[in-house]
Every structure is written in C-alpha cells, then in structure tokens.
Amino acid sequence: MSPASPDIRFLFEPRGVAVVGASPDPGKIGHRIVGNLQAMGARCPIYPVNPKGGEILGLPVARTAAEIGAAVDVAVIAVPVGRVLDAAADCARAGVGFLVVVTSGYAETGNLEGERQLVAFARAHGMRVLGPNIFGLFSAKASLNAGFGPREIRPGNVAIITQSGAMGGAMIGMTAAEGIGLSAIIPVGNKADLDEADLLEYLRDDPATEIVLIYIEGVKQGQRLVRALEATTRVKPVIVIKSGRSRRGAMAAASHTGSLAGADEVFDDIMRQVGVLRAEHLQEALAWCGFLTGAPRPAGDRTLIVTNGGGAGVAAADACEKYGIPLQDDFEMLSRVFAEVTPDIGSTKNPVDLTGQATAAHYTDALRRALGEPAIHAVIAIYCETALLAFDDLPDAIQRLARAYRAAGRPVAFCLLGGTRVTECIARLRAAGVAVFNEVYTAAACLGALNAWDRHRRAAETAPAPAECDEDRAVSIDFAAVRAALGPARADGRRFLLAREGQALLRAIGMRPPRSLVAGTLEEAVAAAATIGYPVVLKIVSKQVVHKSDVGGVALDLENRDEVIAAYQAILQSCRQRVPGLRIGGVEVTEMVRGGTEVIVGARRDPAFGPIVMFGLGGIYVEVLADVAFRAVPLSQCEALSMIKETRAHRLLLGVRGEERRDIDAVTDALQRLAVLVGTNDEVTDVEINPLVVYPAPEGATAVDIRVAIRGESPPG
Amino acid sequence: MSPASPDIRFLFEPRGVAVVGASPDPGKIGHRIVGNLQAMGARCPIYPVNPKGGEILGLPVARTAAEIGAAVDVAVIAVPVGRVLDAAADCARAGVGFLVVVTSGYAETGNLEGERQLVAFARAHGMRVLGPNIFGLFSAKASLNAGFGPREIRPGNVAIITQSGAMGGAMIGMTAAEGIGLSAIIPVGNKADLDEADLLEYLRDDPATEIVLIYIEGVKQGQRLVRALEATTRVKPVIVIKSGRSRRGAMAAASHTGSLAGADEVFDDIMRQVGVLRAEHLQEALAWCGFLTGAPRPAGDRTLIVTNGGGAGVAAADACEKYGIPLQDDFEMLSRVFAEVTPDIGSTKNPVDLTGQATAAHYTDALRRALGEPAIHAVIAIYCETALLAFDDLPDAIQRLARAYRAAGRPVAFCLLGGTRVTECIARLRAAGVAVFNEVYTAAACLGALNAWDRHRRAAETAPAPAECDEDRAVSIDFAAVRAALGPARADGRRFLLAREGQALLRAIGMRPPRSLVAGTLEEAVAAAATIGYPVVLKIVSKQVVHKSDVGGVALDLENRDEVIAAYQAILQSCRQRVPGLRIGGVEVTEMVRGGTEVIVGARRDPAFGPIVMFGLGGIYVEVLADVAFRAVPLSQCEALSMIKETRAHRLLLGVRGEERRDIDAVTDALQRLAVLVGTNDEVTDVEINPLVVYPAPEGATAVDIRVAIRGESPPG
Questions:
Q1: Could you read off the pLDDT of B520-553 as tens digits, one per residue?
Q2: Could B167 and A648 be called an inter-chain contact, meaning their C-beta atoms sit closer than 8 Å?
Q3: Residue B715, pLDDT score
Q4: Candidate from A419, A439, A547 with C-beta closest to B152
C-alpha cells in the first residue's frame, strides 16, 4: 500500500522549496529558477541543490536535498531526464511532498515507461508529481515563482491551470498587460500524476482565488474532471479554453502533448452541463476574467443599455440578443427614470440613447439614475467619443461609477469607443482594476458569461419547478435480464447484438419495442404478419449486416399478404446479391410504427468522459443536421430535459402546425434508462435507438430500432 | 425635367467649400466645422457664410453663398432646420453641386415632408444632398475635413460609409489609434438622396481607396445597393457591418434612423452572393481593414502555421478550420524545408512547431524558408513570449519579414502573445502599418476574409466548371398563362390564390404539379380518385383556409374507395366545426406523392432587396430547423446551386445511407423559374412551394403544394 498523499495545500504554501539542478551558469534553466524565486521574494526558504555545492545568487548550495535538514515541501526538478529518478530518491529522503518536474523527454517524446516509473516511485514514497515537461509553478499566497517562466506576474485573484507551457507564458504576460491579477499558475504538462481535478480541489476552497481559468488540450480522466468542475462552479466561475477542437488541431495536440482531444461537441455539452464557461480563445477568456473578478452577483438579468450614440446602442442590443441577455422593457419605468436626462431626439426606450448632445453630466446622471432603479439588474454603459462630451474627468467618473455599482451589487460593463485618448483611458482604467472594453460585443459577452454562471449556480442551489421535471426521479432496470441479453454475443465473441437480442435488452431496461417475430421461412413470415397485424415491416436478420437498408434488407409499410410475399423474396435476393456468402438468420417481421415524432436516443463510452448519453432528431436527419446534445452520466430527469431543450428537435416534440405535444416524459425516461445501462455496465460500449417514435402525451414512445455494440473480443478459435 | 446631376467626383475633390451657418462662437458647430477645415489644411478655398458677415478664424465671411463669386462644389449646411431651404436656394444661386446637410430634425424625428421638400428642391436645381443629420464629410484627396467630427484622422486607403454618426466617430478614432489610414469618411445619415450605391460608384474607381468599409442599419433601395456592391467587390474588398439584426436592435435602429432593418438572414445571404465580407462588429471589421490594406493577392490558399509554442499552434489550427483556411499538408515537403530549423521535440508537420527552444534566428529562418517554397501560399506566424527568444530586435525583424512577404505576393498574419513588451511591440508595428494581432483567432479570421474575397473575385473572373452548372442557362415562363392564373384572384380582390389557380400558375412557369381534380360531391371525389389512381390525398378547397392542415382539412395516403369516403366526410366535418360559417369550394383529390426528398423553394418581394428566392429543407422541418438560403434576383443556375450547397438539405439531395442522388438540376430549374416569375411580375408578392418532392436524377421534381400571395386590394363593393 502506498503511503498517504501529502496535503495539496503545501504545493501552494510550501515551508521550503528546493531547486534540484540549480546552476551557477546564468544561461541555464536551473539558474533562472533560483533567480525567479528570489526576484518574486518567496515567503519560504529557497534551497539550491547541486552535487558541486558552492553558492548560487548568494544562496548556499546543498549537495543533496537530503542534507538540507529543514522542511522542504516542494522540489523543482531541473536535471536531465536520465537523472530525474535519482533526484526523486534524494527528495524522498528529504521528506519532499511535491516534485515539480520541469524536465522534458517523457510521454511527449514517446517515453511512457520513464514517466510511469517516475510516478510509481514518487507515489510509493508519499510524493506527488506536477508535470513533467512544465515551466514551473506560481503561487501568489507564498510569493512563489518556482519556475523559468516570465517574471512579469501581477498578483490577484485568477488561478490559471494550463496544459500548454507556451499558452501559460502568454496568459501570464497578457494578464499582466491587461491588469488582471493572478493567485496561481499551475502548468500540468503531461499530467503524469496531478491533473486539473486534483488542483481544483485546492482552488475551489482557496479564498484568494475568485476565478479559475483552465487551458486544456486533452482530457485524461474525464469523470474525475467532471465531478471536480461541478463542485467548483457552485462556488466560483470556471472558464475553460479547450483547443484541439478541429481535426487538424487535434492532430497537432496529439503530437505535442500525447493526449487525445475527443469529440468537441461532447466536451462542449458536458462543460455546459457542469456550469463551466467555455471561451473560444485567449482574448475572450481574458475579457471574462477581467469582468468577472469582483463582479457582484446580480439580483436578476434585466439589463439596461445606456449610450450617447444611437448606432452603438443598436449594436449593443444585437449583442445582447446574441449572448442571451434580456433587456429591461418596462418602457413606462424607463421613461419615468430617464426622460429628464434624455433630449427629445433621443430615446428612453432601452437602449437609452442620450444622443451626441449629451454632456458628461447627462451621462453620469443617467448612470446614477439606473443605479437607483431596482428593476434594472445590470447595465451596459457605452461612451462614444464626441466633440461635446468633455473627456477630461471621464476616467475618474467611470472609476467612481464602477465603485458605486459594485457596492450596490449591480454589474456594469463599460464600453468606450474612440481614438488614442480613449485607448489611453481604457489602459488606465484596466490598470486600476476596472474592466472596460472597446467593443460592445465584448461587453455583452462578459455580462452574458456572468449571467450564464449565475443561472447555473442558482439552478444548483434551488430545486426546479416541480411541474417541469423531477430532480430525484430514478429509473431502474433489470440487471439480470441485461446480462442475459448480452450473453450470446459475448459467447460468440460478437461486437454487435442481433435484432432479437437488442429487443431483449430494450425490455430489460424497461423500454417498449414494436411487436416483432422472426420468421425462418416465407410461410412463417406470412403467419407472423397475420399475428402482428398489418401494416408490417420486414428486415433481414444476419450477423454480417449492420446497416440493413444499405443492402436492401428492409421493406416498410407492407399492407397485406401479397406485399409480404413480394418483399420477403426481394429482401433475400438483394441481400444475397450485395453480400456474397451471406449467412441469413431469418427475416424479422415487425409492426409498422406510424405517426409520432422520430428522435434518436443513445449512450456510449466516451474515451475522455466515460459513459455519456445522446439525444437528437431521428431518422436520416440526425446525420445531416447534427442536431444532437450530450450529457455525462449520471443523468437526472432535469438534465435529460435540458439536453432535449438544447436541440431543435425540442420544437418538434412540442408540436408544430397544430400537432399535439409529444410525450417528452417518455424521452427523458428513455435517456435515464440508457444512462443507468451504460453507467452500471461497462460491457456495453455503444447503444443507439433510432428512431424512438414519440407519441402524443401520455402515450409514450416506441423504440423501433436498436443497435448495441459491446466490448469487442476475437471469436474463440 | 431635372437638370443633370453634378459629377460625384466634386464631392470628394471640390474646387471650393462653403460653410453655410459658419459662426464666430467657438461653442457652435458652425465654428467647429470651419476650424476642422483649417486644421486639416483643405486643398481648396474655404468660404464661411453668415448673413452677419465679418471674419471667422481669420477668414472673411460671405453674407450669402451667391456672393462668393468663385467655384463652390460643396456647401456644408449647419443652419437650423427652418432655414435650410433658404440656404439651399442661396447655394443653388452660387452653383453649388453638393449640399452636405449637417442639420437634424428630418425623417429621424418624423419630419418626412421637410426632407422630401429639401431633396426635391435640390434635385430641381441640379444639386445632390448628403444627409441630412450627419457630422460632415472627410476626403483625404482634398485634405477635406468638412464637418464637426474628430480631427484625429489618419490619412490612408480605407473609405468608410456610415449610417450612424456615433459609429462613424468611433471608427475614425479607432482607426487612427490602430494605425489604419482613411481615404474618405462619408456619413449618409437619413439617406434622403445620396446613398451607399451612389458613393460606391465613386469609391470603386478611386485609386486612393483600397478597401470600402460600410456601417449600415437599414437598406432603402436594396436592388441598387446589390448592383453597386457587386460591381465594387470585383475590384476591391468591401466590408459591411450591419446592425439591427436582432428584434430589439431593429427596434432601436427604427427609432433613431427611421429605417427598417429587414430579415437578417436575407441580408446575410445576399451579401455573400455579391462577395461582401460581413463583419459582426467594429473590432472584427477593423482587424480585417488593417490586414487587407496592401495585402498581396495570394496565389492559392494553402497555409502554413509557424509557432514557437505548441498550444498556440493547436489553437491556430482550430481557428483555420473555423475560418475555412486549408493547411498545407504535404508533410514530405514540410519536413524537407523545416527539419533543419526544428528541434527533435518539435514538429515539421503543419503547424511547424519550433518549440520554446527556438531562438530569434530559428524563428526568422523558418519564416524565410516558408517564403522560398512556392507551395506555401500564406503564413500565420505566431510568436509566444519566452525567456529564450531574444526580443530586442523582434519588432524590426517582423517589419523586415512583412516587407519581404508583401514583395513576394505572399500574405502573412503575425500573432504576438505576451506581456507589456509584446503589447508595446504590437502598437509600434501597427503604427508602422504592419498588421499584427494578439490572438490567433483574429489572425486566422483576417486571412479567412482575404481568402473569401479572393475566391469571390476569381469566381467572378473565371467561368465555373461546366459539369457543375451553366452560368448562362436561361429558363422561360409563359407570361400570358401567368396573367391568366392570377386573373380571378385579382378580380375578386383576394390576396391568396386557390389551389387550382396555384396549379395553373405552376404549369405557367413550367413546373409539374401532381395530378389533381376538384370534387364538388362525395361521388365526384370517389370518381376522381379512381381516375387519378390510388393512393390519393384529399384537401379542402376554400378561400377562407390558408393552412389546411391546421383545421383538419387534409387526409393523406388514402388507399381505396372506403378510405376516400371516410376521409371526405371527416374533412368536411372538421373544417365546418373549426371554421364556423365556412364556405367550401369543394375537395381536391390529388395523387399521393411518395419517395423523393422534400424541399421548399420560394420567392418573395423583400422590403429591402426587392425580388428574392429562397431554398430550404421541406415539410415541417423548414420551420423548426431554419435551414434556408436566400438570393437576390436575377439568379443564374450557378447561384441557384450555390444556395442549395449552403444548406444542410444539400446532403440529403446528394443521397444519404445508400440512397440515390436526387435531381438537383430540377431544383435549380425551379429556383430559376421562380426568380423569373417574381423578377418580371410585381403582382406576386410571395410564392412558396412546399414540399417540392425531388426524385432521383433524372426524374425531376413534383411541386406538391403551392401557396401564392398577390398584392392585396380590398374586394370591390
């Protein structure tokens, strides 16, 4: 048994830090790390370690970590890859808790075994590994810049976890330049041991961290990450930038971090599920960080736009619609509050347009009035440079207003549009910690991000309306029957279930397949059709055929005996012709399902996130329209409902052109059953019910076709 | 008859400029305009006009324009709205060509009549009006800043046309701050007379203008605008920002410019049709302007990413996919060219990752090698701040590289990521006219914009592949039969055609309706079904019912006599019940169309753009999925094909899951026929064929249902 892990707190607040591989040569990384630690003024002793001893930058050098003779929680390892294990052994003797392994040459160059050995040794000796292949670690709490990264770090309240060193370096520089302060920077590199989930555990409870920003390229232990994110977003906003979303980007990510990107749609949906704000790129993430730091939690989302330029107001209204920000539209109230400061040619309808005639006094007056009106929950304040609006005291006025809004618990996003004076004003305000923007779309995007996080947090805190869905509704499935349905395929070493096995599985998880019989002869088929009742569908049964319609193996809507006879013969002929040597297990005769809305429900084991469920528009449309939503398991009814609502298929289920509302409960039920199936059974890798025909409520749904894949094994012999 | 219009050239290169309403009071707009003209150093005489005479800013004041006694092409009118007509009369006497009407209080406040009178007077006296309700006009060619806008204008090669004064002011300031030079700024305000189309006529041929940037809120004469844009984009890039795209934004636009926004999807598609680059917001438009100014025309679109940070390379690859930029993937060539400058832990696969070990020499070497390889058509060059990459001479190196790339006809987008030193470097390079960015997505978006414009220009220059479509294919329709089909509805004062009239119209335009008969009695219905052949569809015929299925007026797939009898009775009962007092014109019996892919084709008169055609996925999906494309008329077969390709329905037409390819030619044919119908007949306001069932090629398509609206008039009596 491994010894207990050290407390993660000591990674961020070490009692002492060793630099193993410290060097007197200023050109070496081992020198720069000691220099960085000194420059930032670490709040704990710094111990350079080098077998040659001596002095580096005025500090005495220990020949080994073990000889330091004081508490050392963190050791930065900057020796060549071949000497890292020896260094780790030395650190183990010194009682080190965390190895920050700067050294590269591990998984990213194919050296998986070296990485495995390093972690195994560390864990066996009560140590954890950060990295390898990283630039170091920064912790504001300990004034600790334990790495060879930039020195220009602005302390503050945003923690950055990054899988890429270059993006980490860029983020450090860009945050400093834009006035965003950092509480910690943790590059995770190859994630050989410590990963995002471990770090979130600390950052979630760290009072100095208001926001967590994660740059990620590949997910390794998705289920752990999902749980850690879920716990963190209830307390503070988490912003994620995920690269490798495109085919070519994923290729590049694989080549430089050795990690797989996974399907971007799945990542995107699961991030939404756990309340993460996903930024597309660095600039977007930084704008959100700047705005969300210290932003008050709004009492609601009814927003006001104040502008001195009509066109900018129009653009802001467009941007609010794009980012889902509802505008306050109580025009009577707006007129009462703003008529006095709005000229006749302006407008008190939201946007409140003060026009180019507005002076600085009008402008600040309007913003103060907005502050006095409880039905205005947030404000986007736009200033366009004009000849009339006196600029001199504008920066101060904005700073005062920003302070007043913060004190009143009212978010305000300032947007300043103009020339060099405005540019300088923006820089000055950002340096003073006021988030101001030079584009109305950015301002709206920031407010939208705050609202999105706040909505998620509220939903997590309060139970949803009982009529809509039941957070606690549980479904149960017949585990023994599931095992029985999978048995024959497992025994045969098959990857796919046959039709009748799929239907047995459907029944085992409590779903309704169409009435169905398998016929071995034409006479049996005719008899089966009579038993089931016309119209019927015929389908080929063969282990060799997965997509039956591709080989002419399906005939729909057969109305009578003659049609069944003709279709039976046509199917056999077509399949035999297209699949030479086909072994046929019979022909399945099924009730023809008519009416209802076709959707698809499915579940699978995602390489990154483990068991996930899927919902979308059914039939051939699922492939063409890509109108699908994903969720990680476990799945509550409310989550199932939310994924349905994300798709356009939702409108079809609500009924279009006078049709009745479909039985959406039956769909959430199906999704939950599939979630339980893949969540409790790791033999099933892929289930797809397509179509699930959903009838008007409360008539339920019929699973017309199911396709099930299980873990593949070569057939015995 | 009105006298001839003055040459638009004199608006931009006047021989003299008068300021009517010039004021000695420094607080007045009439003073600031004179000051602005002087400050910029106008290349023509400036004539302040004020009945009081005297001197303003050292210039002698004329009491009237007429007494100036020299050539005056432009008069800036800055008198109160009640005195503008007198001023115009004075200008007419002085031989002025263009009235730049700064004065507000016209259409934007409801004073439509005043605006109409002003334009009528001007046109009757050989003058054109710019505005009213604008801040003035800037023309670099004449060093003319004839307005009360900002003085901080950087001369250069971008012309701005803006419908919003505030956005115009902001754009002037922002371009100056970002190092983008302007050739002209023309606010159009209420567009009472001169509009975007007039101005494009001049700007298209102006050698000083490389790019036209238009900010627009509402389109007035869409067909003229489309033609002017089409002509301009063949010569130079046109970037359009269109606000008022959301419901609330459109409301705000209507209230401050008095113009209607129109449907955003239509605007978007038509802009793509004519090769306009549509930017979402100011920052995007400015980035494109900065990059496109002086950007060389690329020989192709195979792009290389060079980076010293793996993560930034991954993000850039993602961004390239987003903006449709194909990466060069001849890995053998890439290895040959870049292996020498790429360390072992890096990658020569595109992105070329030089890693954090790269020095400035490696970096510039790699970029020079890319320049030497003809199969690399464009480059995205990313620099992440690191400890190793010496920064000192980087700005100069980038400037040298940018020059070399431009000389070689190779576009290069630089992206610099880092802290304050990088921020300063970006500012310095921009001031020197080098477009550099701080976000890989922005760099990729700019290259994507260049490619999009270049593709459009190439397509306009060269004929498309003959197999795909025929640019010259013309369709003809039977105009007399069209008139005959519309006759009864016009005579009755009806807005909608009855079923049989719609089918007559279909035949008149050369399309194929299903076989169909109208039955007045149950017996006739049964006989009609027998004549047409089972299965059949029954539909109610009534002038009062437009959406037949909403009132239970449709029965599908009736297989035999008994089903027809039952359906006939059910339809009458349901319709009578749901529409009390219903007058029934019979029941239509139609062949049941089966198989094939359902699409929708339509045409209508758009309030902004006039006749347009529409294509989308058919049936109920069109409403739910919003998968539609629009084009302005006239429509070539190639344009018709391009609109089909924009939709997801295209994949359905190509055949999914082993289905045959549908007869896409029949769809382009239908679209062209509808285009001719609405293009030649302004009585038809709306036609919708839904569904058009498209069979496997070459079996054509059947127009199952058509809905036609004509210009409404009250019925006589």
A1: 999 999 999 999 888 899 999 988 877 777 777 8
A2: no
A3: 41
A4: A419
DSSP A62: B
List C-alpha distances in Å: A126 to A7, A67, A94, A122, B656.
11, 19, 12, 6, 57
- Measured distance CA(A713)–CA(A492) in Å, rounded: 9
| Residues in chain A within 8 Å Cβ distance of B651 | 623-624
**Of residues A17 and A632, more confidently modeled:** A17
Q: Mention every residue, 6+ apart, whose C-beta is less than 8 A from residue B455.
A: B301
- Asked if residue A117 lies in contact with residue A105, where contact means CB atoms within 8 angstroms, the answer is no
Chain B residues whose CB is inside 8 A of the A281 CB are 315, 319, 439-441
Coil, helix or strand at residue B696: strand
Residues in chain B where the model's pLDDT stays below 50: 258, 260-261, 714-717
pLDDT tens for A229-274 read 999 999 999 999 999 888 888 877 766 554 544 588 889 999 998 9
Could you tell me which chain B residue has the CA closest to the CA of A626? Answer: B648
B176-203 pLDDT per residue, tens: 998 999 999 999 999 999 999 999 999 9
Are the beta carbons of B217 and A314 separated by less than 8 Å?
yes
CB A669 within 8 A of CB A603: no
List pLDDT tens digits, range A563-618: 899 889 888 888 888 888 888 889 999 888 777 888 999 999 888 888 999 998 87
- What single letter denotes the amino acid at residue B711? R
Average pLDDT estimate for A296-324: 94
Q: A 86-115 residues with CB below 8 A of B?
A: 104-105, 108-109
Q: Which residues of B touch A422 (CB under 8 A)?
A: 173, 177
d(CA B649, CA B618): 9
- So what's the pLDDT on residue B557? 81
Instruction: Give the one of B246, B256, B353 whose C-beta lies nearest to A321's C-beta.
Output: B246
Rounded alpha-carbon distances, angstroms, from residue A598 to A539, B130, B557:
19, 57, 19
- Asked whether the beta carbons of residue B652 and residue A319 sit closer than 8 angstroms, the reply is no
Q: Are A145 and A138 in contact (CB under 8 A)?
A: yes
Q: Is A674 exposed, middle or buried (0-12, 13-18, 19+ CB in 10 A)?
A: buried
Backbone φ and ψ for B210, nearest 5 degrees, come out as -95, -30
- For the record, the structure tokens of B491 come out as 């005579």
Q: State which residue of chain A sits closest to B625, comparing Cα positions.
A: A648
Tell me: the pLDDT tens digits for A318-338? 999 999 999 999 999 999 999
Q: How far apart are CA A90 and CA A77, in angstroms?
A: 11
Q: Which domains does chain A have, with CATH numbers?
A: 1-150 (3.40.50.720), 152-294 (3.40.50.261), 298-461 (3.40.50.261), 479-591 (3.30.1490.20), 597-710 (3.30.470.20)
In this predicted structure, the answer to whether residue A160 has a pLDDT above a threshold of 70 is yes
Helices and strands in chain A, H and E counts:
24, 29
| Sequence-distant contacts of B339-348: CB under 8 A, at least 24 apart | B341/B365, B341/B366, B341/B369, B342/B366, B344/A109, B345/A104, B345/A105, B345/A108, B345/A109, B347/A252, B347/A255, B347/A256, B347/B310
Q: A419 and B327 in contact by Cβ < 8 A?
A: no
Report the residue from A173, A319, A347 with minimal CB separation from B419.
Answer: A173
Report chain A's terminal Cα–Cα distance, integer Å: 40
Tally of CB atoms within 10 A around B466: 8
CB contact under 8 A, B384 and A170: yes
Q: Could you tell me if residue A282 is left (phi over 0), alpha (psi between -120 and 50 degrees) or otherwise beta?
A: alpha
Please report, for residues A617, B288, B414, the alpha-carbon distance to residue B408 in angstroms, rounded to integers and kept in the order given: 50, 21, 16
H/E segment holding residue B636: none
What pLDDT is recorded for position A551?
A: 77
CB A700 within 8 A of CB A480: no
